[in-house]
Amino acid sequence: MPRFPAGFELAEALTSAARQLHGTGSPHDAMNAAVQLAVRLLPEAEHAAISEIQRGRLRTLAWTDEVVRFDADSRNGSREPIPDRDRLWTTPVVRTDDSEAAGGADALSGLGLRSALSLRLRADRRRLTVLTVYARKPQAFDDEATRIGRLFTAHVSLALDSATVREQLTEAMRTRDLIGQATGILMERLNIDAAGAFDSLVKASQRENVKLRDLARRIVDANSGASGRGVGER
């Protein structure tokens, strides 16, 4: 894939990036691929990171280099790696041309990063997910970089949504199978039918304040010789 593409090459590069993103197996893999692709696709980008802001806390989910890996709490006065992040709740793009000129000596410029381009991936009432690319020189990201960034993040958002749905469906299938195994064990152990076994499992889950899936796993593990106690052992 060419670096810093334009015109028809840009369309080909975005298509190639989309294939790579949708070929990943999980949201985590998709984000790791996205930050690597962002540095290759966006002109002047040297580093990239995907961060999540929730309840005032910021956590980096994927990064190309340790310099842009952050785990900060803005309420405690920690350095702010995403300039004007509050604006990203209402606008899809925030661009910083020069962190020193913007008074960011204790944040980006202190890390040797002068330019930043932050692009919103997801936003709801509680959580904001942002892809940010960084550069050491000032005014690194122009309107063309912003345009490419917005096209790219549209693909990233779709890939993340798709990967999340696949992961949820896979987890649902695993949970169903696990509960089915636990129900079968209780049927044999307590000499009851399937409905009675499932009802026993639900009541134990409520009584012990344990998720149904976790209780089912405990029963299956106990039955296979692992540590743990089943419902019928209480």
From TrEMBL:
Tree of life domain: Bacteria
Domain (ANTAR) ranges: 159-220
Listed Pfam families: ANTAR, GAF_2
Keywords: Kinase, Transcription, Transcription regulation, Transferase
Protein name, UniProt field: ANTAR domain-containing protein
Natural source organism: Streptomyces rochei
